[in-house]
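Next comes a concrete protein, fold included:
___
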Amino acid sequence: MAQTPLTMEVIKQVLKLNKDGISIRESARRLGISRNSVKKYLALLPDVTAGDEALASQVYNNDSLTHDEQRMAELNGYFNGHSEELSRTGVTRQLLWQEYLQQHPDGYSYSRYCYHLQQYHKNRDLSMHLEYSPGDMIMVEFAGKKQHYTDPDSGEVIPCEVFIAVLPYSGLTFCKAVRS
C-alpha cells in the first residue's frame, strides 16, 4: 500500500524537533509516525529555513503532480471522443486502450485505463429508478447479432434471431431463437 504524505504541520514539527536536537526515534514517537518517515523527510529537506512554498514543492514533488494532471486531461479528452465506440459491436476496452497507447506511448497501464474509464462513465451516466406494477407491461427485443443453427437432417445453416421478453416488475425473462 502506498504511503500517504504527511501534512505540512507534521513536516514542520519534524524539522523543528530535528533543529532542537531531538533524536529521530523520539521525534517519531512524539509525532506518531514511523522512524523511516522522519528519516525520509529529513533527507528531503536539509534546508530548515525554507518557506512554506519551497517546502511543499520539495516534499510533494509538484512537477510529477503537474505531469499526472496533464496525463489525466489527455485521457479524459480521449474518453470524450471514443467512449461511444464501446456500444458498437466488437469494440472492447482492450481495443480502445491499444489505440490510446498508439497515440500516447507513455500512457496509463490497462488496469489504470479501465479504472479511469469506469470513473468517467460513473460520473456521466445518469440513471433513474422506475416503479412498475405487476402485469402492467412487457418489454420485448431482438437481441445481439444474428445467430444460426444447422438443421441435423439436411445440414442446412438456418439464420435466426434471439427474441427476448422481460416482465419488468418480477424480472422474469423469456428467450427464444426464431427464424429470421
